């Protein structure tokens, strides 16, 4: 029998909050430590790192070549490595091919360059539909691609994680890496969006 609850949280968030409360009361976790870990992955080890990798690839053809050949080493050379980023592959979008990353088994994700995965990345609907109907999924994200463009779906695993290098937007010739970094979003590095256009 359904019950009315005055709760602004969805059921998953409510369960998570309840679990955190119980573990805190038992002295098994420190909420401040959890908050610090989340802050680290959202702001210091997050998508900004991946954006810097992409911007360097756009600005430096030699680095782009190294990234294609050995993404793990190229990314580590920029200081971005660690748990969930031990084995990386960079896939480059072109006018003919658009790359999309999914983890069909769970939510394998390159934390050192993208931070924490968004909720939708872990959702069963995305994990199954991205493989079966990638064009429709991208359209739901607001990215409509021409029928002539091939969509390549990469299935991330515990052994190999992917970073999409979106196409460099037109009108950014002569821009430095810092300015280019501002055009790179997390979703563009997953493949559910393009890089931002210059203002």
Question: How would you characterize this protein structure?
Answer:
The protein has 2 domains: 32 residues, no CATH class; 146 residues, Nitrile Hydratase, Chain A (Alpha-Beta Complex), CATH 3.90.330.10. The chain has 11 helices and 4 strands. It has a two-stranded parallel ribbon. A two-stranded parallel ribbon has the order 2-3. The chain is mainly alpha-helical. It starts with 10 loop residues before the first helix and ends in a 9-residue tail after the last helix.
SSE diagram, text form:
Layout: H1 11-25, H2 31-44, H3 47-59, H4 61-69, H5 71-77, E1 88-92, E2 97-102, H6 111-114, H7 119-122, H8 124-132, H9 134-140, E3 150-155, E4 161-165, H10 177-181, H11 186-190
Parallel strand pairs: 1-4, 2-3
Q: Can you give keywords for this protein?
A:
disordered N terminus; 11% strand; 199 residues; single chain; two-stranded parallel sheet; globular; 2 domains; Nitrile Hydratase, Chain A; 46% helix; mainly alpha
Radius of gyration: 19 Å
The CATH homologous superfamily name of the largest domain equals Nitrile hydratase alpha /Thiocyanate hydrolase gamma
User: What is the tally of beta strands?
Assistant: 4
Number of helical segments?
Answer: 11
Number of domains: 2
Please outline the major beta sheet.
2 strands, parallel
Q: Class of the largest domain in CATH?
A: Alpha Beta
The CATH topology label of the largest domain is Nitrile Hydratase, Chain A
């Amino acid at each position: 029998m359904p019950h009315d609850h005055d709760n602004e949280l969805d059921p998953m968030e409510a369960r998570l909050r309840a679990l955190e409360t119980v573990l805190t009361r038992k002295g098994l976790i420190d909420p401040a430590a959890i908050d610090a870990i989340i802050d680290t992955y959202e702001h210091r080890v997050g998508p900004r790192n991946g954006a810097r990798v992409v911007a360097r690839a756009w600005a430096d053809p030699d680095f782009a070549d190294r990234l294609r050949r050995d993404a793990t080493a190229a990314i580590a050379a920029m200081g971005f490595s660690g748990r969930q980023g031990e084995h990386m592959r960079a896939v480059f979008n072109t006018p003919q091919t658009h790359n999309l990353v999914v983890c069909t088994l769970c939510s394998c994700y390159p934390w050192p360059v993208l931070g924490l995965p968004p909720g939708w990345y872990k959702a069963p609907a995305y994990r199954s539909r991205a493989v079966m109907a990638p064009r429709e999924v991208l359209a739901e994200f607001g990215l409509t691609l021409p029928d002539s463009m091939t969509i390549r779906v990469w299935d991330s695993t515990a052994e190999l994680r992917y970073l999409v290098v979106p196409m460099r937007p037109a009108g950014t010739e002569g821009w430095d890496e810092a300015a280019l970094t501002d055009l790179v979003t997390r979703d563009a590095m997953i493949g559910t969006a393009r890089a931002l256009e210059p203002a």
